[in-house]
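User: Okay, second chain of the day. Same drill as before: sequence in, structure tokens out.
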Amino acid sequence: MTGRMQAIWIKRAHTGIMDPAASATLVAGKEIVGNADQGSRRQVTLIEEEILARLVKGLSADLPTSTRRANFVVRDFPLIDSRGQIFTIGGCRLRVGGEVKRCNLMDELLPGMRQAMFPDWAGGAFAEVLEGGPVSVGDEIAWQLPDVAHPLTDPEKDTVAIQKTEPAKLD
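Assistant: Same drill. Structure tokens below.
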């Protein structure tokens, strides 16, 4: 399944203003260049555009995607139960560390928003940067499939010993 990067938001300071960006640079083991809180496990945060729109509409509001305070707004890329999964975006690789837990700031912006984000990873996910590089709005985002070789078709990755034996002779 592939999706698209819809928006990039860079946080100036902890609980600070989120600035829109057309592109950003990710650094492995750090986070987005210029983003606050460098080097934590929550190096990049993501939210699904479709879920955010549904939540805001359900609370009879009209708020920009920056309200959720996620770095990346993605479309057609479900995050639910993705802990440990690796994805690519631009030339970068990231691993989902877990579900983003909603903070009280959500209710300050829109009463009821924090509670609405609890089910089904609706608050988004956070990820660790494994391989850095540039990312841009419009980039494809895709889950990386595990590199698994079948032991009978890839002899270099063979983990199963196959021994040829002669049939037993009956007297």
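Residues 96 and 127 are 4 Å apart (CA to CA).

User: Thanks, on to the next one.
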